[in-house]
Amino acid sequence: MLDAGLPVRAFFTTRAGGVSAAPYESLNLATHVGDDPEAVAQNRAAVSVMAGAPVSFLHAEHGIRVAEVTRPGEDPAVADVLVTRAPGVALAAIAADCVPILMHDAATGAVAAVHAGREGVRLGAVDAAVAALLDLRSPAQRRVREGMSASIGPAACGRCYEVPEEMRDAVASRHPTARSTTRAGTPALDLPRAVETRLGELGFSSVLRQRLCTLEDARLFSHRRDGVTGRHAGVIVCGVSVR
Ligand SMILES: [Zn+2]
Fold first, then answer.
1. Left (φ > 0), alpha (ψ -120 to 50) or beta: where does 120 sit?
2. What is the set of domains in the chain, with CATH numbers?
3. Which side of the chain, N or C, has fewer Cβ within a 10 Å radius?
């Protein structure tokens, strides 16, 4: 488990610590990848123990839809952004190359978990999450953009994430810092850097980055590298201060 460095309990899981067999070994948290459902249920229960609260795992669709979770352990609607302001609610974004992002708003105590892949970044998943957090503020709180912090989890890096040139152009037209080149010199996307840039533009006072590449680090799941594989998660708990 990697500490996300936020003011509330928040962390990123790795492959370690679960019960799933190959090729999902071992802490696979996704139900849609062909793993034994009983093993995934055990793994998710282990993550709830780490969080100290029952975790609501998002159901991604590579879009910008937002779902608010109001009760601990609630199974959320399909959405790539989960938000809550209810203390004791734990949110998780699962990924394996896409970018998991955790956010905290000190003004309200609200938190968000975001799954941002190529399509999500292009369509504006980061903006959608920040808008959802601002919606939970009072009108007076909305006038200043202070108190927002975020942590960007492990993802495919800009030296590894090769894409067709037109795809790179489509994302970079909206997020210029996403434009990258692989070690081999071919077109690529740097989604973590694009997310970091956008959060800065949106007024975040603190943005942390794990800077771990899922394709290069065998401790993490990578769909690009392994094809059939599991998913790790970014987890954040509302209302549990750690600093
Ligand atoms: Zn890489």
1. alpha
2. 2-238 (3.60.140.10)
3. C
